[in-house]
Amino acid sequence: MAGLRSPGASAGQRTRGGPRQRAGKTVLGPDEMRRALTRIGHEILERTDGADDVVLLGIPTRGVPLAARLAARLAQTEGTQVPVGSLDITMYRDDLRLRPARALGHTEVPPSGIEGKVVVLVDDVLYSGRTVRAALDALSDIGRPRAVQLAVLIDRGHRELPIRADYVGKNLPTSRREAVRVLLAETDGEDSVTLLGAADPAAGGRDAAAARDPAAGRDAAAPAASDGRPAADQGPGGRPQGGGRAR
Question: Fewer Cβ in 10 A, N or C end of the chain?
């Protein structure tokens, strides 16, 4: 998949006022993503003794469809119908006073609740850990689960908080000047994970914002303001042109 570039710009062309853009490198395609989620599903079953007390909560935006896919795999493998919900973390972000106002997302807790359950938080990219910290705070206002685990499609490193994922689809070494863009069929019309080159301010994305203003970055897992999630776990900047979250 080609890196983000302005309309009419050829690969490797400089954009006005910005550095040379690089083509993106495809890290996961549809088949690789399917296999990664299947493996995570098996690991959840093994570590939770069949997932009988598991509740999957996706962090908007792309954590929600990923949680639904994991629930489907658990049902196919074990015949276990795992409750699925979503957890909005907008009001728990640690950069609310620094960033523009964002629309509140949707929190949906399964009717069975989370008391005494093993809650598995699901997200697309783990970066600094600040999105996950916000999710833990939001979760504590809903109930008291027996345990909380974390499943992510991509772990790109560069943690700023002592947070580690329990289930990882792919560990992806990156530099802070690179961005990871996740596209899902449910939200973007296709399944792919792309590693974008050095941040280009003209290309958008959280890493691009950091290139323009190092003080502007927070965590990393959020694309645009409409996403309603902390910039903490995605990487500096907003949603890149062409859709998808670059973290």
Answer: N
Give all domains of the chain, ordered by start, each with its CATH number: 25-91+101-246 (3.40.50.2020)
* Distance, CA of 1 to CA of 195 (rounded, Å): 9
- Tens of pLDDT, residue by residue over 105-163, are 889 999 999 999 999 999 999 999 999 999 999 999 999 999 999 999 999 999 999 99
Q: Cβ(182)–Cβ(156) under 8 Å?
A: no
Letter for the amino acid at 179?
Answer: A
* 73 sits in which H/E element: helix 63-78
At 216-244, the pLDDT tens digits run 333 433 333 333 343 334 444 444 434 56
Q: Is 146 exposed, middle or buried (CB count within 10 Å of its CB: 0-12, 13-18, 19+)?
A: exposed
The contacts of residue 10 (CB under 8 Å, 6+ apart) are: none
Q: Which of 206, 132, 198, 209 has the alpha carbon at shortest distance from 168?
A: 132
